[in-house]
């Protein structure tokens, strides 16, 4: 938790108990939680946290560059602590979202999009993860 407080302070964010609970969870999860998932997990350490505090904190952490927000699931935004360029694979059976390293996929055809100024892109793959 002390690391979380220091991270927040470094970003110029006042480390309130609510912000610490949210940041501590999202910075220590391997997943891509929705705001509702963050709310449920944050209430384990900060039972009085409100939905508004969770949303405000998540958006603040996105604004500060600590998280990225993605619409990967239909109608739901998920939050990703991995801010490096990467792609995503969504397991349609389990719903799990996996990071795919940027260099593992090549996208071609950008020259065919001369009418657009492309700022960024990512590939979202859907299917089933093979069993080991």
Side by side, the strands of the main sheet go 4-3-5
**DSSP E strands, number:** 5
Q: Return the CATH topology of the largest domain.
A: Arc Repressor Mutant, subunit A
H/I helix tally: 4
| Average pLDDT | 92
Largest sheet: 3 strands, mixed
CATH class of the largest domain: Mainly Alpha
**Strand residues, percent:** 15-25%
Structure, briefly:
Helices cover 33% and strands 20% of the residues. By secondary structure, the protein is an alpha+beta fold.
Verbal overview:
The protein is globular and about 50 Å long. A hairpin with a 5-residue loop joins strand 3 and strand 4. It has four helices and five strands, in the order ααααβββββ. The chain is α+β, with helices and mostly antiparallel strands. The mean pLDDT is 92. It has helices spanning 2-10, 17-27, 35-45, 51-63; strands spanning 68-73, 76-80, 86-91, 97-101, 124-127. It folds into two domains: 2-80, Orthogonal Bundle (Arc Repressor Mutant, subunit A); 86-127. 33% of the residues lie in helices and 20% in strands. Helix 2 packs across helix 3 (35-45) and helix 2 crosses helix 4 (51-63).
């Amino acid at each position: 938790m002390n690391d979380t407080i220091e991270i927040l302070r470094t970003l110029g964010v006042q480390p309130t108990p609510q912000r610490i609970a949210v940041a501590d969870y999202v910075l220590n999860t391997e997943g891509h939680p929705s705001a509702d998932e963050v709310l449920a997990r944050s209430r384990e350490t900060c039972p009085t946290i409100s939905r508004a505090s969770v949303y405000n904190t998540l958006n603040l952490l996105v604004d500060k560059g600590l998280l990225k927000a993605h619409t990967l699931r239909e109608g739901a935004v998920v939050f990703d602590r991995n801010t490096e360029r990467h792609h995503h694979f969504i397991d349609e059976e389990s719903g799990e979202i996996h990071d795919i390293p940027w260099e593992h996929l090549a996208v071609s055809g950008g020259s065919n999009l001369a009418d657009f100024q492309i700022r960024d892109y990512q590939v979202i793959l859907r299917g089933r993860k093979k069993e080991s």
